[in-house]
Amino acid sequence: MIKEIIGVGNTELEALNDAKKQLGLNEDDEVKFELIQRAEKKKFGLFGGAPAKVKILLNENVADVAQNFLRSVLDAMQLENIEIARNEIEGGIKFELVGDGVGFAIGKRGETLDSLQYLTSLVANHAQGSYIKITVDTGNYREKREKTLETLGRKLAIKAVKTGRKTGLEPMNPYERRIIHTAVQKINGAISWSEGENMHRHVVIGPDPKLKNFHRNGHYNKDKGGKYPYNSKRKEQLSVDPNREPINEGGETGLYGRIDK
After folding, report:
1. Number of structural domains, the chain?
2. Binning pLDDT at 50, 70 and 90, where does residue 70 land?
3. Which end of the chain offers a freer environment for a tag, N or C, measured as fewer CB atoms within 10 Å?
4. Which of 133-142, 202-211, 248-257 has the lowest mean pLDDT?
5. How far apart are CA 86 and CA 132, in angstroms?
6. Mean of pLDDT values over 99-126
7. Same structural domain for residues 149 and 219?
8. Is residue 165 assigned to a domain?
């Protein structure tokens, strides 16, 4: 990203120092600049005249922009003890938070960590001009959360097939809903869908209405050729099929999907 700053002053030096000040630099810092207008004195001390103008073009690294923003937010949260480790990943950048107070940075069910990642992504992609994936994590929290959601989705899918009843989950972001959908869709006899709007959107898991072998109460229909329920010796209906296509709400770009500038 190229950042352009124009400084104004009564002299060329004052204009240059004004531009440096806007960038947060010291007056003795060396920078490349362009003089776009020389200072002109007033004629007879009364008429005309013009201030000097200097332009500084500063190349900013998108990773530095994102990290500086994340640092400023953590400091504003009084989490100055948290350090930020930066790693290049395929298609983007991963920031790992390390130190005391990371629990506060995670928040309830990872909501604070999600917000930090979302805002940092906005800043990075505004600076970049094209999409770059930003991940903010701590202690492999996201990997652990994903495994927890996969287990939950699989467990509730099996329950839905056994009981014939649906279960609504707590509101989740699109990325986490997609994890649940993926887990459920691999359990034959169970389906999942989303309900609610905006921050209240959540996943519901229930029995597949195409499944005709069970009554609503979960008992099998022997007279109509139904299969035995889950706790019997025959468990074909609850077999895991890794080739079933998942419902994909979140796209392939990670948390909250793609974020354009």
Report:
1. 3
2. very high
3. C
4. 248-257
5. 14
6. 90
7. yes
8. yes
Q: Tokens for 143, please give them.
A: 């990997």
Whichever domain contains 223, its CATH number is 3.30.1370.50
CA–CA distance, 179 with 90 (Å, rounded to integer): 21
The answer to whether residue 85 is domain-embedded is yes
Flag whether pLDDT at 211 surpasses 60.
yes
Here the CATH number for the domain that contains residue 82 is 3.30.300.20
pLDDT given for residue 86 in this prediction? 92
* CA-based nearest residue to 115, from 70, 151, 155, 165: 70
H/E/C letters for each residue in the chain? Answer: CEEEEEEEECCHHHHHHHHHHHCCCCCCCCCCEEEEECCECCECCCECCECEEEEEEEECCHHHHHHHHHHHHHHHCCCCCCEEEEEEECCEEEEEEECCCHHHHHCHHHHHHHHHHHHHHHHHHHHHCCCCEEEEECCCHHHHHHHHHHHHHHHHHHHHHHHCCCEEEEECCHHHHHHHHHHHCCECCEEEEEECCHHHCEEEEEECCCCCCECCCCCECCCCCCCCCCCCCCCHHHCECCCCCCCCCCCCCCCCCCCCC
**Shared domain check, 202 and 148:** yes
Question: At 146, is the pLDDT very low, low, confident or very high (cuts 50, 70, 90)?
Answer: very high
Q: What is the pLDDT of residue 20?
A: 86
CB 134 within 8 A of CB 67: no
Per-residue model confidence (pLDDT) at position 194: 94
